[in-house]
Write a structure and sequence with these properties.
Blueprint: E1 15-18, E2 23-26, E3 32-35, E4 38-47, E5 50-58, E6 70-71, E7 74-75, H1 82-100, H2 105-120, H3 129-144, H4 150-157, H5 161-174
Antiparallel strand pairs: 1-2, 2-3, 4-5, 6-7
Helix pairs in contact: 1-2, 1-3, 2-3, 3-4, 3-5
């Protein structure tokens, strides 16, 4: 089966290409010209005894390289760990919420620390991130003694205050945080 490629050793054009094994061999001198050919496109076809894969093989010497594919806003292989990305997003959202409530950097840092504690203890799984951020900010407001109420935060975030309250109670209990009472 001639493929139009010349052998580097003897110059023969009688080259056998075996797609199943993924190699290319000179039938004149027996030299292996290429092995581990990379599949760029795979198709499946129904053979009488089951499915068979059919592909177009691309040599290792071909031009082009690996493509950096992305998911959403984050690049796969960018080096950022999943936890780092989660914390970076949380910092952005918590900062935005605290700015809307006119809270200083101290409150942002404290709320982010509560979020990190919740993340480490896997308390964020299965809960909406906006509820977790809001609950962390509310825990901060309560521990720092600000005048912000749960309904203030739920209004800013446009989430149900009952759901926010449930998330807040679960987080504060699981993190063993003693929340002072609201004094009017």
């Amino acid at each position: 089966m001639s493929s139009g490629v010349k052998c580097r050793n003897c110059g023969s054009t009688d080259i056998e290409e075996d797609n199943a094994r993924g190699d290319r061999v000179c039938t004149n001198c027996g030299s292996v010209l290429e092995d581990s050919l990379i599949v760029s496109e795979v198709q499946f076809e129904d053979a009488g005894h089951g499915a068979a894969a059919i592909g177009q093989f691309v040599s290792a010497d071909s031009a082009g390289g690996a493509t950096n594919y992305g998911y959403g806003k984050f690049q796969v292989g960018s080096g950022a760990e999943s936890r780092e990305v989660t914390i970076k997003k949380a910092k952005k959202e918590i900062t935005h919420l605290c700015q809307q409530l006119q809270l200083t950097q101290h409150y942002i840092d404290t709320a982010l620390n509560f979020f990190r504690m919740a993340l480490i203890r896997h308390l964020t799984r299965g809960r909406k991130s906006t509820h977790i951020y809001a609950a962390c900010v509310y825990i901060t407001c309560r521990t720092e003694g600000t005048s912000h109420l749960l309904i203030d935060i739920s209004d800013v975030q446009q989430i149900c205050s009952y759901e926010l309250g449930r998330t807040y109670l679960k987080l504060s209990n699981a993190l063993c945080i003693n929340i002072p009472s609201v004094v009017s």
